[in-house]
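Dear all,

This email documents one entry for the complex benchmark we are building for the journal club exercise. For each entry we list the sequence lines for every component of the assembly. Then comes the predicted three-dimensional structure of the complex as a C-alpha cell string, followed by one or two observations. Please use this as the template for your own entries, and keep the labels exactly as they appear.
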Amino acid sequence: MATGRTHRPATRSRGIPEATVARLPLYLRALTALSERSVPTVSSEELAAAAGVNSAKLRKDFSYLGSYGTRGVGYDVEYLVYQISRELGLTQDWPVAIVGIGNLGAALANYGGFASRGFRVAALIDADPAMAGTPVAGIAVQHTDDLDRIISDNGVSIGVITTPPGAAQQVCDRLVAAGVTSILNFAPTVLSVPDGVDVRKVDLSIELQILAFHEQRKAGEEAAADGRAVVDTDDEEEAPPMRATPAGRKGPDGDMPAVMPA
Amino acid sequence: MATGRTHRPATRSRGIPEATVARLPLYLRALTALSERSVPTVSSEELAAAAGVNSAKLRKDFSYLGSYGTRGVGYDVEYLVYQISRELGLTQDWPVAIVGIGNLGAALANYGGFASRGFRVAALIDADPAMAGTPVAGIAVQHTDDLDRIISDNGVSIGVITTPPGAAQQVCDRLVAAGVTSILNFAPTVLSVPDGVDVRKVDLSIELQILAFHEQRKAGEEAAADGRAVVDTDDEEEAPPMRATPAGRKGPDGDMPAVMPA
DNA sequence: GTCTGTGAAAACCTTCACAGCG
DNA sequence: CGCTGTGAAGGTTTTCACAGAC
C-alpha cells in the first residue's frame, strides 16, 4: 500500500502478488497459534477462518509459494510456519532502529510482537539531549547526533520513524544516507525517498477517518430504512463554507440521499 | 481491507470505491496543509504530489465526489477541504473510547491527530483497578466494569482496542453489546463481530514483516545483479525443518518458476 | 494553452468451481 | 470420499489518453 516506487516492473523476478505478501503475516500468526497448541495439520478452511479470510483466497495465496499441502488432508502446520517465515525473511535477524522516543516510540519499543518475529530493537534514538541515556524498554536512548554511527554499527536496514511530523523527512533522509533501505513511518507526512528504499506508513487517524465514513453511512441508512423520508435538503449541513470558485459551482449536493438526517 | 462484512452489496447507495475512501484522508491532510498556508487553489498534479499519489488517480477519486474542480485552473482548496470532510463524516463530532491503557493506549490518548479531525477521546478504560482514576492525557481512566455505562453515557460509536490479545475479543463483545458499531483493533487478534459492525485493524508487526519481505528481496537482487548467477538453489536457506507430511513432500524448492509463465 | 473529468484499456485481485491427487 | 491446487470468470483499481471546459 504505502511502498515506495520500486518493485521490479520488468525482470520478472519472483511474482508473489503484493496482496498475498500482505496476508502472509496473518497466516503466520494463525499458524503459530496452532503450532503452540501442537496441532499437526490444518485444512484451508480452518486456517482461513482463524486468519479471517476465505479459504479460496488462502489456497490461492499458498499456491504462489509452492505446493505445500496434501490433498485430502490439509497443510502441515510446522512446515508451513517455516516456509512462510522463510518467504517473509523472518528466518534472519532484523535489527531495527526507532527514531523519536515519545509515547508512541516507547510503546513500540515495548511491543512484544516485534521480538517474537525476527525483529530486534537495536537502537532508540531521540533528538532531546535530556533523554540520552534514559533507558526505555531496557535500552538506553541515544542522541540523534550519532544516528549515522548507530545505524552502521548495528547494521540496521529497517528504521521506524515516530517523530513529530516536522522532523520526519529530515530523519528519513539521515536514515537513508546511513544505509537504511526500509522505513516504517508513523508520522503523518509523505516521505520522499530515493529509488530502492521502501516506505510503509501507519496513520492512526486515517484509520479512524475511514471508520467514520462507514459509520456515517450506517446512520444514514438507518434513517432511510423506515421513514423513507430521505430528505435531501439536509445536504447543506450547517455552515456550508461555499468557498465557491470563479464561476458557478457544479454542486454535488442535489443527489446524495444517505448522509445526515440533519 | 479490514472492514467487517457489511457494506450494502445491493441498494446501490452511493458507490464511492473503498480504495478511494481510503485515500480521502490523505488528500484532506495535504489540503489542510495548503489551507494553512493560505494557498487558494491547487492543481491535481500539485495536490497529488503532496499526497503521494499520481494525478490521474486523484482526479478519478475526486470525480466520484462530484465535479469540484475548474478546468484550466484546478481545485479550490477550502471548498475541497469542506467537501471531503463532509464526505468522511468529519463535520460531526465522534466520541471515541480507548480500551486498554498500556503504552499504546496512552500514546493514542495523547495523539494530536485525533482531536484535530473530528475525533474526541471521550473515555479511557482499563481492566486494572489500580489505574482507575489515574489521569492519562488529562482524562481519568475508568474501570472496565463500567464499560457499558461509559459507552452509552457518552454516545460512543467508535471504540479503539489496545488491550493484550487475550482480552481483545471479550472487550470487543462488550463494546458491541454496549452499542459500538466501529472498532479499530490494535491487538493482534482476528475479531469476530456481528453484521453491521466494522472492524479495521492495525498490526504493527505485520507492517514490519512486509518490509522484511521486500528487504530480503533486495538483498537477493543485489547479489544477482552483477553475477547473473540467479541461483535458485538458494531456496534451501539454512536448516530446512523438513517437517514433511505423510508421504513425499512436493517441495517448493526444485521447481517453482514461481510466477506463472507456465 | 491549461488542466479537469472520464470513457476505455490494462493490471490486479478475488471468487468460483472443479479436476485430480491422496 | 475430502481437500488441495488452479484455470477461468468476475470484480475492482489503476493507468492511459484525450475531449472539452475555462
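Observations: The radius of gyration of chain B is 24 Å. Residues 1-13, 228-239, 243-262 of chain B have pLDDT under 50 and may be disordered.
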